[in-house]
């Protein structure tokens, strides 16, 4: 199965090679979609691929380490009321999940293509792109 999760962890865990351990101990395939880590702690959005039982064990391991694990149900959302169709998000999206609609020049979002990298969230001047947790 394929699951996207958000990990938030305190400073004490930052030094540990958590993601390497997940791969080595549980043989879970990882894709880091977004990460923000500083001396106070951090947040990582991960895509986990593997047998569901193994992913469950991996998530339990993370929780034992004091990491909060939240599954992402829907990824990223575009709040159309806040969007000014400025197009700033289009140029940063690596998978063309945001494009101008040909006739209207409105910016449309295809959540099936989105890999939750978060670049549009940082780029949007009106906070119209939101991470769903
Ligand atoms: S989160 Fe990343 S992949 Fe998804 S729409 Fe935004 S920039 Fe594109
Ligand atoms: S950057 Fe924000 S306001 Fe501009 S088109 Fe994208 S979602 Fe809309």
Q: What is the alpha-carbon Rg in Å?
A: 17 Å
* Percent of sequence in beta strands: 25-35%
Briefly note the structural class of the backbone. Answer: alpha+beta
Strand order of the largest sheet: 2-3-1-4
Quaternary organisation of the protein chains:
single chain
Distinct small-molecule ligands in the complex? iron/sulfur cluster
N-to-C order of helices and strands:
EHHEEHEEHEEHE
Total count of helical runs of at least 4 residues = 5
The strand count comes to 8
On the 0-100 scale, what is the average pLDDT?
87
Protein model, in words:
The chain is of the alpha+beta class and about 130 residues long. It has five helices and eight strands, in the order βααββαββαββαβ. The protein has helices at about 10-15, 20-25, 50-65, 90, 120-125; strands at about 1-10, 30-40, 40-50, 70, 75-80, 100, 105-110, 130. A four-stranded antiparallel β-sheet has the order 2-3-1-4. A two-stranded antiparallel ribbon has the order 5-8. Strand 2 and strand 3 (about 40-50) form a beta hairpin. Helix 2 runs antiparallel to helix 3. The model has no long low-confidence stretch (mean pLDDT about 85). Bound molecules: iron/sulfur cluster (2 copies). The site of one iron/sulfur cluster has 14 residues, from helix 5. One iron/sulfur cluster binds near residues 84, 89 and 129.
Quick rundown:
With 133 residues, the protein is an alpha+beta fold. Helices cover 27% and strands 33% of the residues. The protein binds iron/sulfur cluster (2 copies).
């Amino acid at each position: 199965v394929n699951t996207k999760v958000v990990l938030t962890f305190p400073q004490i865990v930052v030094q540990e090679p958590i993601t390497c351990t997940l791969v080595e101990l549980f043989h879970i395939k990882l894709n880091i979609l977004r990460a923000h880590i500083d001396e106070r702690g951090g947040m990582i959005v991960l895509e986990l691929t593997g047998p569901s039982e193994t992913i469950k064990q991996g998530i339990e391991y993370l929780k034992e380490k004091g990491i909060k694990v939240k599954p992402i149900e829907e990824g990223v959302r575009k709040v159309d009321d806040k969007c000014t169709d400025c197009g700033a998000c289009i140029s940063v999206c690596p998978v063309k999940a945001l494009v101008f609609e040909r006739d209207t020049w409105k910016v449309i979002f295809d959540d099936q293509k989105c890999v939750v990298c978060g670049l549009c969230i940082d780029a949007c001047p009106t906070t119209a792109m939101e991470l769903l947790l």
